[in-house]
Amino acid sequence: MTHPDHSPLRDRALAFRALHVPGRPLVLPNAWDTASARLVEDAGAAAVATTSAGVAWALGAADGDRLGREDALRAVADVVAAVRVPVTADVESGYATDPEGVAGTVRAVLAAGAVGINIEDALHEGDAPLRPVAEQAERIAAARAAADALGVPLFVNARVDTFLRGAGGVDLTLERAAAFVAAGADGVFVPGAVDPETVELLVEGVQAPLNVMAGPGAPPVAELAGLGVARVSVGSGIAQAAHALVRRAARELLDAGTYGSLAGGLDYGELNALFGGGR
Predict the structure, then answer these.
(1) Starting from the edge strand earliest in sequence, which strands make up the sheet with 231-233, in order?
(2) Is residue 243 located within the same domain as residue 119?
(3) Can you name one GO molecular function term for this protein (predicted)?
């Protein structure tokens, strides 16, 4: 029986891992489909990250563990096929109820050709905002073991939703981050924490590359770099901005009968050429 050669995937995973440098962060404009991924790569991104919210919306589903694994991973495979740079997949809570299910998701991520995952500790059902730390650590350990079994150094970015869910501050974040790193996480992602003092405390306290989610009102990338951040992403921000343009243009056309919102659009030929076509 022959086994698949994971050497190219391993090399890509190592290349992606090397992009996480505190003080010289990997900057990820998150994509949600083939077109957005190709545009992000064309803009000069060293890697492409998917946004689970953007992917879900594009497929007609709400974000928050509502999209099925098969649909989500098909979108990831499409993004991987569209670009040459490494891809990291936002897999929400792992599209599974137990650690073995998370391991299955990781195997599917690798089969799709992605070399990183974001996996969150938020709970979208029940009263508690976050999954118990020991339970989440088991899920991260399962993700790590599944990738290791295939010989691929998948970058596991453990998302800690303390700030995003209003569940705690720096101390609780550091406690959870330490458990997740001990379980095999390679990086820690703390969305909702952007003020410089908080970011500095997180950089100092997390024993792994720190990922910050930026957007309007957050310090610029250069300032985050100066604080020692290793990765900056924007979550669903670009998707939200794109969809805002769709709504604005549609309302203008239907209400005023004018077309000003369409000014500044990308040239047809330029977009078509991005996909290998002509006019």
Answers:
(1) 26-28, 231-233, 210-213, 187-189, 155-159, 116-120, 87-90, 48-49
(2) no
(3) methyltransferase activity
